[in-house]
Specification:
Blueprint lengths: L2 H14 L5 H13 L5 H15 L5 E2 H12 L3 H10 L3 H8 L5 E3 L10 E4 L2 E4 H17 L10 H11 L10 H8 L4 H9 L4 E6 L5 H15 L8 E5 L2 H21 L16 E3 H5 L20 E4 L7 H10 L5 E6 L12 H5 L10 H11 L18 E4 L7 H11 L3 H10 L5 E3 L7 H9 L8 H8 L8 H12 L2 E5 L8 H14 L15 E4 L13 E5 L13 E6 L2 E6 L6 E3 L2 E3 L8 E7 L10 H8 L2 E8 L5 H7 L8 H9 L1
Parallel strand pairs: 2-3, 5-9, 5-10, 6-7, 6-8, 8-9, 11-20, 12-18, 12-19, 19-20
Antiparallel strand pairs: 1-4, 3-4, 13-14, 13-17, 14-15, 15-16
Helix pairs in contact: 1-2, 1-3, 2-3, 7-14, 7-25, 8-11, 10-11, 10-16, 11-12, 17-18, 17-23, 18-24, 19-22, 20-21, 23-24
Length: 667
């Protein structure tokens, strides 16, 4: 049997054992068809590139892959040993494969057509090589400093002082000491850096003021804009829910500024609200029935300034499309938490772009710019010789949403300190964070979901309120608002979808517990009064977005029988909206959500349910994201609390060449 036939036989056996996908095997067969003379090791490498793209890696770095294969793959030792034996050493791969028309070695441009690309020890599927190269090229172009005369430094300083007024200074001897102890204003730093270039990265945890900063930057740029018309501003996010939250946050911040800042005489109002926020798909005109979006380099967006929130959720391909469609002179501001869970699709763009943000790395030119334009004296420990992208990155470091035990727990997890995390979960005197005792099934979770913990509510209070429905239709709206506010104060989050501790099982268990407690009627169909639902698909006509959460209720004046009309009620700020349940086919029951689907939300009390056994999805980023959804209390339900140690030590590891492409260009 030939070398190629033996390899394909091995791949088929691994596919039958569930270690590879059918797609991975089919891709290897396609490569063999395209070049029957290609080395068998290249066919295997192609199958691995396809497989790990399915695990959200944009490429495979061959030497690291071979070292980390057991951790990255979860395959049995005999398979990983065999894979290692079949692949050439990284230093020899280019030579071994260079004669094949299947692969382009060290390309200097993106115009090739081979299915595989080899660059700097990384193997790519052509599509993702093109995306990473395009993103790197756009980022390099946008981080070039603007000419100094593009900015009126005196006017900028005036507006920065208005937007970031210093705290009232104490008098007398304490004044000098207070000035020395004043925290550095990272939000102001972000606005000053934005004046230098056409790309700004603003990263920080929950409550650090990312949208607060964005609103002030919007006012600053509008005030300094010299044209007769205001800047054309767009707001966007990966999901409709995140886009709506961004617009609400910007509007609230602008309203605060209107009461604090006297308006100047302009041809336009710097405090005017921007247009509606949209999903990135809607912004670009991406349609499932079209190969190309409506906007690209040939048909760019009609925008001067674009804010994108929840940028950690933006995948590599979408980022490439966005940057391609953005006019060269437009500014892009990416807002997000680099430490949160990454996109559910390929790539980890924000994490790659913000690598090293903790250290600052601001060079002499940036230090001088911050001083001259913003009056800022950068702490010495954040000075350095960072790459051009570091000069356009601002990490916000002070959270105003939470501190105390929740903040300490999030920080312990984020720095990989499992011992400190376990200690906080076990010994928090204020009972803000806690771990349930080990439990063999979901009975403890059911109890907590209804009764809450200590002074922190569960769902019981909400469903007792549901039973206390007012007879007067005129009182319905206030009752429904209160009901929805009560429901969204608590949420159960799950690490996985399937299994005994997965979303589906936990939703069913909570529903059963409510029925047994007499707080919910036995359901006889999919829709029932009291069912919480999460929308899973945008519907612009209905004003409903992916991620919206509502409760199913009988509208006022309807009967109470089986055939009574049901509507899904949602709360936007204080505005109560409703949609007929029959018009919402794309929903999921939402007593419990995956941690991924909770991103961008916050709840007073969060209960995180871990699976009984260790899993690759249990990572530091998942724990951090779950913890930082909690505002007042966090509770962990873990059949094996020791899994926290494993999760804290397990970083999400996605192979990518984006940072290498950027660093290579700047060296």
């Amino acid at each position: 049997m030939s070398e190629h036939a033996l390899l394909l036989q091995r791949l088929r056996a691994w596919r039958e054992a569930g270690h590879l996908r059918a797609l991975d095997l089919a891709f290897a067969r396609l490569l063999h068809t395209l070049d029957p003379a290609a080395p068998a090791s290249l066919l295997l490498a192609g199958a691995l590139a396809a497989h790990f793209e399915g695990r959200r890696h944009s490429c495979v770095k061959l030497d690291e892959l071979l070292d980390e294969l057991p951790v990255l793959s979860g395959w049995p030792p005999e398979m990983t040993d065999e894979v290692r034996g079949l692949l050439p050493p990284t230093a020899e791969a280019a030579t071994a494969w260079s004669a094949s028309p299947l692969i382009e070695i060290a390309p200097s441009h993106t115009a090739g057509s081979t299915p595989l690309v080899w660059c700097d020890g990384r193997l790519y599927l052509r599509r993702y090589w093109h995306c990473e190269s395009a993103v790197a090229a756009q980022v390099r172009a946008r981080t070039a400093p603007a000419p100094a005369d593009d900015v009126d430094a005196a006017a900028a300083r005036l507006w920065l002082d208005r937007l970031f007024p210093p705290p009232a200074a104490p008098r007398g001897r304490a004044a000098k000491a207070a000035a020395a102890d004043a925290p550095f204003d990272w939000q102001k730093l972000a606005c000053v850096l934005a004046l230098r270039g056409r790309l700004l990265l603003v990263t920080g945890g929950p409550g650090t003021g990312k949208t607060f900063t964005a609103a002030r930057l919007l006012v600053l740029l509008q005030a300094l804009h010299r044209g007769p018309q205001p800047l054309r501003v767009a707001l966007a996010a990966p999901t409709g829910k995140a886009a709506a939250r961004l617009r609400q946050s910007i509007d609230a911040a602008l309203q605060t500024l209107r009461t604090a800042i006297d308006r100047e005489v302009f041809g336009h109002d710097p405090l005017a609200a921007p247009g509606p926020a949209r999903t990135l798909h809607a912004l670009l005109g991406v349609r499932p029935d079209a190969r190309r979006p409506q906007h690209d380099a040939a048909r760019p967006l009609d925008v001067d300034l674009l804010f994108v929130d929840e940028a950690s959720m933006v995948n590599l391909e979408m980022m490439a499309l966005l940057l391609d469609a953005l006019p060269p002179r437009a500014r892009l501001v990416l807002l997000g938490d680099k430490d949160q869970l990454e996109s559910v699709e390929t790539g980890a763009v924000l994490g790659d772009l913000c690598e090293g943000a903790d250290a600052g790395g601001y060079d002499d030119a940036s230090v001088q710019w911050l001083s001259a334009v913003g009056g800022l004296t950068l702490p010495p420990e954040f000075r350095g010789a960072g790459a051009p992208l570091a000069q356009q990155t601002a990490m916000l470091r002070t959270s105003r949403r939470f501190g105390g035990a929740i903040g300490a727990l999030a920080q312990a997890v984020n720095r990989g300190d499992a011992a400190a995390a376990r200690r906080l979960l076990a010994d928090d005197a204020g009972r803000v964070v806690a771990t349930l005792a080990e439990a063999p099934d979901l009975r403890r979770v059911q109890h907590l979901a209804l009764a809450g913990r200590d002074r922190h509510d569960g769902y019981g209070r909400c469903f007792r309120l549901l039973a206390d429905r007012p007879d007067d239709p005129a009182a319905f709206d206030d009752w429904a608002r209160n009901l929805l506010r009560t429901f969204v104060s608590f949420r159960v989050l799950c690490a996985v979808r399937e299994g005994p501790q997965g979303v589906q099982a936990v939703n069913a268990a909570i529903e059963q517990a409510l029925v047994e407690a007499g707080l919910l009627k036995t359901r006889r169909g999919e829709w029932y009064e009291g069912r919480p639902v999460m929308v899973t698909r945008n519907d612009a006509a209905l004003g409903i977005f992916n991620g919206d959460i509502g409760l199913v209720l009988r509208p006022p004046g309807s009967g109470a029988g089986e055939g009574a009309a049901l509507r899904v009620y949602l709360l936007d700020g204080e505005v109560l909206r409703s949609v007929s349940a029959g018009r919402l086919p794309d929903v999921e029951t939402a007593f419990a959500l995956t941690v991924h689907k909770s991103q961008g939300s916050e709840f007073a009390h969060v209960l995180l349910v871990l699976p009984a056994d260790d899993s690759p999805v249990l990572t530091r980023e998942l724990l951090y994201t779950a913890i930082t959804r909690a505002r007042e209390a966090f509770t962990l339900a873990a059949p094996q609390p020791a899994l926290v140690d494993a999760a804290v030590q397990r970083l999400t590891r996605r192979h990518s060449g984006l940072r290498a492409l950027l660093d290579r260009a700047s060296s």
